[in-house]
Each structure stands twice: as structure tokens, then as C-alpha cells.
Design goal:
single chain, 340 residues, alpha+beta, FdhE-like fold, nine-stranded mixed sheet, 9 helices, 12% strand
Length: 340
């Protein structure tokens, strides 16, 4: 096959919108991959994300929760996850609003998802009295209490929600929104006024990821904490305030001290970005304009990175970056602090 050389000016005329702006989730493969990743992390099998022994049991529990998410997503009838009327979706898209907003009224079917999730967990987790007690407490919540908990979870409020209840409520909401998001037509969904929120549901991202392969090669995406949709944001741009002037990256050294190392944004003397570098699997992108950070995971250095799972497991990085004076931009829905 003969390749045709482009004439001067033709490059500028190419369609530069071919970068996939939005990657919609596939619930089954998403939850299966996330559960497998959580178990690898719990076993300390991932170079670049060391996991303390105290965190390993929790990761195993969350892997069981994600298994339940996968099972419920596959077992419940499709009508459980019905989309809003087409006219409502069109109106939202036409006004650059999320077509499946997490604010406002929720489909009552999410409570069916929640009940099914608890049933699956009760059947799959044996001989753990503490978990049985939490599941019993969750079953005892009335509709008003459960909806209030969901309000707090979606608003990322630590007040008004029990930290042991919140991950299970969040897990049910994730199933609901992920299953609905996968039914959308991604080219129709428009960016929001701010690129820091999910264009599908309006939630904050849990972390960002540099993807490899196909048209997404080398591009950075933010992953939604609720519906798991991923949307493109240029690299070296704060995913909280969108400034670019004071971005840096903090990572964990591979030595025993595990101290943060700051990488300059534009370091012309930096070593080539070779693949499979454990120190670049998980990093914190910090911004000195808004003094926040959000983690960024790189498929170039670990093909199987999973933003939510890797974020949950890399608490050591959170501690070190927080000690350096940066606030976390948004939380992880499967881990809550501050008892109500």
C-alpha cells in the first residue's frame, strides 16, 4: 500500500476531534476487573502501590462488594436501569447538563439494587459477625433514612452518614448509574461548563488515568466516582481548578523510606519515560494554585491500573501529600471517615 504524504496546510485541516472525549463504562467488565485488581492490591502484588497490612483486609472486603455489584448488575432485569425519557435526555444535553444527574430525584429502583446487593453479600460473606451486624443495620433503615444516606453519599458529605454504611450505599448507587450510563450514546453527550465534573452524571472524579491503545493512546481521562464514565482532560492541568501554571507530581520512591518525590512539570533533563516504572504507576497531581491534589494512574507503567481500586489502596500517598499541605480534591466512595 502506498502512503500519501500530506501537503502543507493539510495537517491543520484534519479532524482533531477524533480523540474520544467520553468513554462510557461497561458494567460487567468494569466490576469484574475492579474486583480482581482489589485482590491483587490486597495481596501486595502491584509494584508501585505498596499496601499496609492494616488495609489488606478492607481491600478484600471491598473486592467482595464489587463482586456483588457485578452479580447484581447482571441479574436484575433491564427495566431496573431504565433511562429517563428521551426528551429529558435531549433537553439536558442541549443545555450542556448531565443527562443522568445525581442531584435531584433518584429512580426508586436504586433501592431494589441496594436490597439485592445486601442479599448477595449476606450469601457470599460467611463467619464475619461484624459484617453481618452492618448488613443488619442497613436492612433496618427505613426509606427516609436510606434516601438521606444516599443524599449524603452523592454530595460527599461526612455528616449525616455512618462511615460503615456509606460504602454499601455508594456501591448500590454505582451499579444504578453505571448500568444507565452504558446505555447512552457517547457522541451525543456534551461537555459541561466545567470539565472538572462528569458530563454524564455531574459527580466528581475519583482519580485520573493515562490510557494506552487506539485513539486514547497517551491521553489523560478523569474517571467518575459514581457512574465510572471517563472524560478527556489534557495533561498537566489541574482537575480541580483547571489552572496549569503550578502543577507537579508526587510519587513514592521505591526505597524503604517511601518519601514523596516531586517531578517538575517541564523537566527537559528528565530521563526518558520508559515503560513499567513502578514509581510512575501511581502519582499525586498537586496544584499550588488551589492547594489540592488528585491521583493519576498510568497504563504505560501498569496496563491493569484501575482508578478507583488503585486510589483506594494507595493511602500511603494520601498521607504523605496531605502532610505536604495539599487537600484531597474529592473522596473515594468506598472509603469514608468521620463517624456521624
Amino acid at each position: 500500500m502506498v502512503q500519501r504524504l500530506l501537503e502543507p496546510g493539510q495537517i491543520e485541516s484534519l479532524d482533531h476531534t477524533s480523540i474520544p472525549r467520553l468513554l462510557l463504562p461497561q458494567a460487567r467488565s468494569l466490576f469484574m476487573a475492579r474486583a480482581a485488581r482489589l485482590r491483587q492490591l490486597a495481596n501486595n502484588d502491584i509494584k508501585g502501590i505498596p499496601v499496609a497490612e492494616a488495609m489488606q483486609g478492607y481491600l478484600q472486603l471491598m473486592a467482595a462488594v464489587v463482586d456483588a455489584q457485578a452479580a447484581v448488575a447482571a441479574a436484575l432485569p433491564p427495566e431496573t436501569f431504565s433511562l429517563p425519557p428521551a426528551a429529558d435526555i435531549k433537553l439536558s444535553i442541549d443545555h450542556n447538563m448531565p443527562p443522568l444527574p445525581v442531584n435531584g430525584a433518584r429512580p426508586p429502583e436504586w433501592r431494589t439494587v441496594f436490597a439485592a446487593l445486601l442479599d448477595h453479600l449476606a450469601a457470599s460473606i460467611k463467619d464475619q459477625p461484624q459484617i453481618d451486624a452492618v448488613l443488619a443495620e442497613l436492612r433496618a433503615l427505613d426509606v427516609a433514612q436510606l434516601e438521606g444516606c444516599a443524599d449524603a453519599v452523592l454530595a460527599e458529605l461526612t455528616e449525616g452518614v455512618h462511615p460503615l454504611h456509606a460504602p454499601f450505599v455508594a456501591a448500590a448507587l454505582q451499579v444504578m448509574w453505571t448500568k444507565r450510563a452504558e446505555q447512552l450514546d457517547s457522541p451525543r453527550v456534551q461537555p459541561l461548563v466545567t470539565n472538572t465534573l462528569c458530563p454524564v452524571c455531574g459527580s466528581h472524579p475519583v482519580a485520573s488515568v493515562i490510557r494506552i491503545g487506539g485513539q486514547s493512546q497517551g491521553y489523560r481521562y478523569l474517571q467518575c466516582s459514581c457512574c465510572a464514565s471517563e472524560w478527556h482532560m489534557v495533561r498537566v492541568k489541574c482537575s480541580c481548578c483547571e489552572h496549569t501554571s503550578k502543577i507537579a507530581y508526587q510519587s513514592l520512591e521505591t526505597n524503604e523510606d517511601k518519601l514523596p518525590v516531586e517531578d517538575a512539570v517541564e523537566d527537559k533533563n528528565a530521563k526518558p519515560n520508559k515503560a513499567n516504572d513502578p514509581s510512575k504507576v501511581a502519582r499525586a497531581e498537586t496544584c499550588d494554585d488551589c492547594k489540592t491534589y488528585r491521583k493519576i494512574f498510568n497504563q504505560e507503567h501498569d496496563f491493569h491500573v484501575e482508578p478507583l481500586a488503585d486510589d483506594l489502596a494507595s493511602l500511603t500517598l494520601d498521607v504523605l501529600v496531605s502532610e505536604a499541605g495539599y487537600a484531597r480534591a474529592s473522596g473515594n466512595p468506598l472509603l469514608w471517615f468521620n463517624a456521624a
